[in-house]
Amino acid sequence: MISTEPAVLVLEDGRRYEGRAYGARGRTLGEAVFATGMTGYQETLTDPSYAGQIVMQTAPHIGNTGVNDTDKESSKIWVAGYVVRDPSRVVSNFRAQRSLDDDLQTDGVVGISGIDTRALTRHLCSLGAMRAGIFSGAEYELNAVEQLNAVRGGAEMAGQKLSTVVSTKERYQVPAVGERIGSVAVLDLGVKTSTLNYLAERGFDVEVLPESITAEEVRDLAPDALFYSNGPGDPEASETHVALLQELLRGGLPYFGICFGNQLLGRALGFGTYKLPFGHRGINQPVLDRTTGRVEITSQNHGFAVDAPREGVVDSPAGFGRVEVSHVSLNDDVVEGIRCLDLDAFSVQYHPEAAAGPHDSMYLFDRFRDMILATKTPALSEGDNQ
């Protein structure tokens, strides 16, 4: 049954949206953003990249397929708050184990329903992502000034290092599926389960590492490659991860990064990063792969981007040789991928594991596998000649 209890969404510019309480009751603060996917709400909610954000779904009807344990991308819902227009009154799917409202309440996620999400989307598109708060239950009774002051007292996304919140605390392994061809050290900055599974399916033992790992500890594992995952927060606040990557790149370790891992590669190469007005979030983002000329429809969730020259080959400001922008957004020309020409390293800004989303970019895991096999081939050939 849909709640009739009142709730309000308050933006830092003073705009207010009255609606109904959804999920847990209380107060939550975060950065208001919108996600444009028509499907995949469970994958969105359990994606650690959304930590610290109040996520609004632009699709009007949410919750009709319920939730299950199979499609979760992590152990819990990470969004700071949830905004929908019309929550489903019933769950109708043979895979459903619970309703979405059940999981929101279990994980303590304060939400709101029944607002004009089209108007909110247009507002955020015009003014950009901003701090916000959802107030329900006893918190709804606060006066408007108190609620607005609470929102304006919340943390800005810029400057936040959230990988310490979402990363695993202990190292663990996902074993290779089928024939083993090597191992990959994955720095967990907010990694999704699907990413680990796709790496394992390509024959890699996947060593998942906490974000506090040192270069010496990575070298002790003797991995065949390094992978930086997606994750929340400001890349400028993750200089320890940049320094770690620089040290391991200088040691010749092959590298692949996605989303946050793309931003950190950019910074490791000496480029800057900047905050986008309202980010790219959803499963319908068009990207051009300049290597193949192919257009991919991609799954994305990022509020920051790499500031690098879009055209031609340039020298890395940090001394890592030649670099080129390999992928660009067809919506706004944002850098969506980087390729190093003198190192075995590349990255993309989007989520090729397609959870949820299209499978256009799945080839990137194969490209990573082929790169690692190519680096191993000379050693194998030398052994054959001895």
Describe the structure.
The chain is α/β, with parallel strands linked by helices and 386 residues long. Helices cover 25% and strands 32% of the residues. The protein is built from 10 helices and 20 strands. The protein has helices spanning 41-45, 100-106, 117-127, 144-152, 163-166, 193-201, 215-221, 239-250, 260-268, 363-385; strands at residues 6-11, 16-23, 27-35, 53-57, 61-62, 81-83, 86-87, 110-113, 130-136, 172-174, 182-187, 204-209, 225-228, 255-258, 272-289, 294-307, 313-315, 322-329, 335-340, 345-348. Strands 10, 11, 12, 13, 14, 15, 16, 17, 18, 19 and 20 form an 11-stranded mixed beta sheet that branches. A 7-stranded mixed barrel has the order 1-2-8-6-4-3-9. A hairpin with a 4-residue loop joins strand 19 (335-340) and strand 20 (345-348). Helix 8 packs across helix 9 (260-268). The longest helix is centred in the C-terminal third of the chain and has 23 residues, at 363-385. The radius of gyration is 21 Å and the shape is globular. The termini are far apart. The model is unreliable at 379-386 (pLDDT under 50).
Write the layout of secondary structure elements.
Layout: E1 6-11, E2 16-23, E3 27-35, H1 41-45, E4 53-57, E5 61-62, E6 81-83, E7 86-87, H2 100-106, E8 110-113, H3 117-127, E9 130-136, H4 144-152, H5 163-166, E10 172-174, E11 182-187, H6 193-201, E12 204-209, H7 215-221, E13 225-228, H8 239-250, E14 255-258, H9 260-268, E15 272-289, E16 294-307, E17 313-315, E18 322-329, E19 335-340, E20 345-348, H10 363-385
Parallel strand pairs: 3-4, 4-6, 5-7, 6-8, 11-12, 11-13, 13-14, 14-20
Antiparallel strand pairs: 1-2, 1-9, 2-8, 3-9, 10-12, 15-16, 15-18, 17-18, 18-19, 19-20
